[in-house]
Specification:
By secondary structure, the protein is of the alpha/beta class. The longest helix is centred in the C-terminal third of the chain and has 19 residues, at 105-123. It is globular and about 35 Å long. It contains four helices and seven strands; from the N terminus they run E-H-E-H-E-E-E-H-E-E-H. Strand 4 (61-62) and strand 5 (65-66) form a beta hairpin. The two termini are 24 Å apart.
């Protein structure tokens, strides 16, 4: 079985400690992460450097808007996975998967790899 691809993840999360923890976890997988603390910054990064990202991992409760709206908008460019404290399943229009905080890094890894695979299949 081949090793999973090393992904470049755009993580949209307003909590700096959570972002630091995710960066640490993703780097243990050999992946890279760019952090955006707001919807506005995530939009800027995708529009300026979208081709460098493989997948977006987004919190839903953000200081300048809803991660739901962000996911609907950015899913046209990249696969988007929600990582949220909201326990109830949400209608995830635009999202490939929904993970509930706190998520094990193995769950995050599987969801991100699946999202990228689904996105690549739909692009063919």
């Amino acid at each position: 079985r081949s090793e999973p691809a090393a992904l470049h993840v755009l993580y949209v999360e307003d909590n700096a400690d959570a972002a630091d923890a995710m960066r640490y976890a993703l780097t243990t997988l050999g992946w890279t992460m760019t952090h955006a603390a707001t919807c506005a910054r995530a939009r800027e990064l995708v529009h300026e450097h979208g081709e460098s990202f493989d997948v977006i991992l987004a919190d839903l409760g953000l200081p300048d808007g809803s991660g739901l709206e962000l996911g609907k908008e950015l899913c046209e460019h990249l696969p988007v996975v929600a990582l949220t404290a909201y326990g109830a399943p949400l209608v995830m229009q635009g999202f490939t998967h929904q993970l509930i905080k706190p998520a094990e890094i193995s769950e995050v890894q599987r969801a991100l790899l699946r999202a990228v695979a689904v996105h690549q299949r739909t692009r063919l």
